[in-house]
Amino acid sequence: MNIKDTSSEKYCPICKNETSKVNELDAKYIKNKLSEHFNNKIDKNIEIIDYSLLKCRNCNFEYAVPFIDGSSSFYNWVTSQPKYYPDTRWEYAKVLDLMKNKDNQLKLLDVGCGDGKFLDYIKENKVLNINSFGLDPTNESALKCSNKGHKVFCMDTKKFKANFQNELFDTITSFHVPAIVN
């Protein structure tokens, strides 16, 4: 599968200045690097596409195009790897600090919650004024998160928005989740 999004290849999604191509990342290369990183051979049937790595000439932002989410076969494989989810991220403490000082109870949605590491972090830090929910499209990840006692929706953001359009959240977090920039 070779899909190219040429509309995103000329201008930076952040500052709108011109970009330069830094590298071509074909599917075979990506599969080899994933196999090396996780020390586990990736199945040849897992769908991975070719990407170009671009860099903005103005702000130096580097990003991959096309802006396409990974396939479900890819996410099912990668999220099953023991080293995929880190135990913590530096961002967790910073985000929690921003939310802690609120007087009212907060309703939080963690988009791309994976196996629930950020929701675990909230629970471990005993922040009682946060009613947290997770959202993840990968069945295995959502199940792991749910098995830890978290409230989680197993669906993508489009389906969530269609099914819960009247649902309001005070805070929405998303850590290291691919997103389409418009």
Structure keywords:
182 residues; alpha/beta; Rossmann fold; 30% helix; disordered N terminus
List the helices and strands and how they pair.
Blueprint: E1 19-25, H1 27-38, E2 51-56, E3 62-65, H2 72-78, H3 90-100, E4 106-111, H4 117-124, E5 130-136, H5 139-147, E6 151-154, H6 157-163, E7 171-173
Parallel strand pairs: 4-5, 4-7, 5-6
Antiparallel strand pairs: 1-2, 2-3
Description:
With 182 residues, this protein is α/β, with parallel strands linked by helices. It has 2 domains: 6-78, no CATH class; 90-173, Vaccinia Virus protein VP39 (Rossmann fold, 3-Layer(aba) Sandwich). The chain has 6 helices and 7 strands. The chain has helices at residues 27-38, 72-78, 90-100, 117-124, 139-147, 157-163, and strands at 19-25, 51-56, 62-65, 106-111, 130-136, 151-154, 171-173. The strands form 2 sheets. A 4-stranded parallel beta sheet has the order 6-5-4-7. A 3-stranded antiparallel beta sheet has the order 1-2-3. Helix 5 (139-147) links the parallel strand 5 (130-136) and strand 6. Mean pLDDT is 87; it is low at 1-7.
